[in-house]
Write a structure and sequence with these properties.
Spore Coat Polysaccharide Biosynthesis Protein SpsA, Chain A; seven-stranded mixed β-sheet; 9 helices
Length: 252
Amino acid sequence: MIEFHVIIPARYHSTRLAAKALATIGNKTMIEHVCYQAAQSGAQSITVATDDERIKTVVDAAGYSAVLTSEKHPSGSDRVYQAAEIVGLDEKDIIVNVQGDEPFIPPENIVLVASLLSKTDYPMATLCCQIESAEEVLDPNAVKVVFDKTARALYFSRSAIPFSRHHQIKLGQPLQADYFRHIGIYAYRKAFLKQFIHWSPSEHEQTESLEQLRVLDNGQNIAIACLDEIPPHGVDTQTDLDKARKHYNHLT
């Protein structure tokens, strides 16, 4: 069985929804839901990497592990690496970066991305799913990805890729081409993560505001697997939080 560690970056001052890690969904905070889902994956360890004592207190009280990291990290990857250093992970250990705003992340997706990395010589692995609506294809908050026949990611973009010369995308109309949404979960080994955070932000990364493009721009490959089922969306806004609460009420 594949061995891996989960690290969950969780900032307090999120841009679009302040303190969302501590927002309640049912009788638990969002970060508790994420920890619970991660625990179902069979990970060797689960660590929340936060910049705020309030989040750490909640995580510790729930019986999970949290470490305090710098408030000045430029990215989630830097925060994950510092957490990996604090808990003493080995350079060869597989780390799965699970976002702290994914309260319903399927545990099997965590296992899948770790397994994908273990079976490839690529330094990084991630997931995607097929997009079903024109609205999502045209939404810049939904990151699109294209990949080749060997399941190697070619590019990530907030724009609609690939561009079809023959079929215009029309709202409310069926899609005439295949589009795939990137799912923001990553697996890598600690040694590669250390290398990654010392690269300067790349041109494409800064243009698209997508950190994973730094990997491609430095000539490295990203393995990608396409899910059969579309997973629940994460929580970025108050609207997303309202939907998450309704989803939880439906489940219970």
